[in-house]
Amino acid sequence: MPGSRTLNPDSHTPLQPAVEIRDLAFRWTESGPPVLRLDHLRIERGERVFVAGPSGSGKTTLLNLLAGVAVPQQGSLRVLGRSLETVSGARRDHFRADHIGCIFQMFNLIPYLSVLENVQLPCHFSRVRRARVRRRSGTPTAEALRLLRQLGMAADGCPDRPVSTLSVGQQQRVAAARALMGAPELLIADEPTSSLDADRRAAFIQLLFQECADSGSTLVFVSHDTALAPLFDRTLRLAALNRATPDHETAVQSGS
Ligand SMILES: Nc1ncnc2c1ncn2[C@@H]1O[C@H](COP(=O)(O)OP(=O)(O)OP(=O)(O)O)[C@@H](O)[C@H]1O
């Protein structure tokens, strides 16, 4: 039960929710229309949330806001208890490096680095994640290999290959392993299974769930594949704001 995992075992003080949004409006350009409006959204620690909605409804935009890549022009946005709309870009970058694992649609892998080097990158940017990796597996290399093994990417010299030589589906798994390094409290994933076959997709989701359960991480997962939705604790459904239909609301719907 996600809502029950709200005590910090170290301090015995209640943890803030993973995400709390109020009266948020976001537009990409000053004169452009709002692309996302959310009156209230609360995601508890440890929850696994599936984000659905038609193309252009703002799913990726929402992940950009949660990652602190973009900031809302209106409303409040608290992630892991931190008000992201009030802090500088540099602080948001630091916060993201320490606490958020991102699997973006474009992967953002560094082409001239090997698979193993790419997966270890979060440890270069964050002392917090480095410390967690040390506690879990001893070294960044050992933890990266553990994750790559789980994703079927540790055999046949794969860890030493430059990522530019990998298929899109393989790159997707490398991006996932990198996001999971150092057990970030919040994991956000944008269409992370779009290039995987059915078997790999099932294994991938199981791994994400297992890793999140082991570390109490919260998962926000965007996908057009609504067959996956019942696997999650609930579904957040976004509706396109600028469609010429009466349905202009951004709806939050609870799944089973
Ligand atoms: N960097 C950007 N600059 C300007 N407009 C943008 C930018 N990124 C997205 N948009 C616009 O914001 C709206 C929401 O886009 P977004 O990518 O969040 O939708 P989405 O629901 O993730 O779509 P898809 O399912 O196709 O990935 C769209 O109208 C899009 O054109």
UniProtKB/TrEMBL annotation:
<dbReference type="GO" id="GO:0005524">
    <property type="term" value="F:ATP binding"/>
</dbReference>
<dbReference type="Pfam" id="PF00005">
    <property type="entry name" value="ABC_tran"/>
</dbReference>
<protein>
    <submittedName>
        <fullName>ABC transporter related protein</fullName>
    </submittedName>
</protein>
<dbReference type="GO" id="GO:0016887">
    <property type="term" value="F:ATP hydrolysis activity"/>
</dbReference>
<keyword id="KW-0813">Transport</keyword>
<dbReference type="GO" id="GO:0005886">
    <property type="term" value="C:plasma membrane"/>
</dbReference>
<dbReference type="InterPro" id="IPR003439">
    <property type="entry name" value="ABC_transporter-like_ATP-bd"/>
</dbReference>
<keyword id="KW-0067">ATP-binding</keyword>
<dbReference type="GO" id="GO:0022857">
    <property type="term" value="F:transmembrane transporter activity"/>
</dbReference>
<feature type="domain" description="ABC transporter">
    <location>
        <begin position="19"/>
        <end position="254"/>
    </location>
</feature>
<dbReference type="InterPro" id="IPR027417">
    <property type="entry name" value="P-loop_NTPase"/>
</dbReference>
<dbReference type="InterPro" id="IPR003593">
    <property type="entry name" value="AAA+_ATPase"/>
</dbReference>
<dbReference type="InterPro" id="IPR017911">
    <property type="entry name" value="MacB-like_ATP-bd"/>
</dbReference>
<keyword id="KW-0547">Nucleotide-binding</keyword>
<dbReference type="InterPro" id="IPR015854">
    <property type="entry name" value="ABC_transpr_LolD-like"/>
</dbReference>
